[in-house]
Amino acid sequence: MNPRQLKTFLAVIRHKNLTRAAAEVNLAQSSLSDQIQALEEELGADLFLRSRQGVVPTPAGAALKAYAEEILALNDEAKAAVSAAAGSAGQSITLGTLETIAAERLAPWLSLFRKKNPDLGLKLKIGGSGELLAQLQQGSIDVAFTFDRGHQDERFLTRRICSEPLVLIAGRDSQARPPASLAALSTVPFVATETGCVYRHLFDTAFAEAHIAAPSIVTEADSIATIIRLVASGTGYGLVPRLAVGPAATRGDVVELPWPGKPPAASLVMMWRRRRVQPPALTLLLQSASEELSPLRPADARLRHAG
């Protein structure tokens, strides 16, 4: 049972499809099947079944999954520990984040960090919140910057950076008036991301905590930038992070409406895998983020208020 076999095994679990799994691990499908068969022979159990849902793990395969992830994580940690002890630790780090956070919060800081650490290689990957957590566990990214959903995962360490306010926006020409209450706001149309996205979670939570039914979602969009454009066109209202609204507000495309009640906010956090030995480059980046990533001031967004 070697790391390559385990990576192949986990790829099949993720994709539920041999062809897509083979593409991920750069193997011919026949070679992938050979690796899975060798693993099954060594363990003395079938690991997968074919079904209408695709290739799914057997109970034995499901039991192996957590151990495979842990073995691969320990393999990475061992390499990092040896490199650190030998004084040849890799000077490269991969960050994963949401598109909005990358553009509006990380770009200025990463530019400064790069100037201070010119020998350190940086890679940036954009993805959804669920995708980032999967990549973090797989080791394809070293640290994730996202909004906290309040769920503790013992596989990861989490550090809060700051609280980012969410703002209610409407199109410039919508003749929108400040809502008198959350109940009144629940009757107007909204544009939001799809269910499962961290932004949609924040939207639903804002109403759930007030014990009020969430408004009707007239359009679902795949990004905050798209939501802002749809709001500007008059499709509906939006509840978005203030950090994303600056350019549209400067152009006068949208206006901010006061939120009835306590304004909602999201905690911007960075997450990384628990390891016995942290790579020196990651330690350096985490320290810089803690010290130099600060909250966005309300005035920075330059929003036009309606009222």
From TrEMBL:
Residues 1-58 form the HTH lysR-type domain. Pfam families: HTH_1, LysR_substrate. InterPro entries: LysR_HTH_N, LysR_subst-bd, WH-like_DNA-bd_sf, WH_DNA-bd_sf. Keywords: DNA-binding, Transcription, Transcription regulation. Coiled coil: none annotated. One of its GO terms (molecular function) is DNA-binding transcription factor activity. SUPFAM superfamilies: Periplasmic binding protein-like II, Winged helix' DNA-binding domain. The keyword Repeat does not apply. Transcriptional regulator of the ttuABCDE tartrate utilization operon. Belongs to the LysR transcriptional regulatory family. This is HTH-type transcriptional regulator TtuA. It comes from Rhizobium leguminosarum.
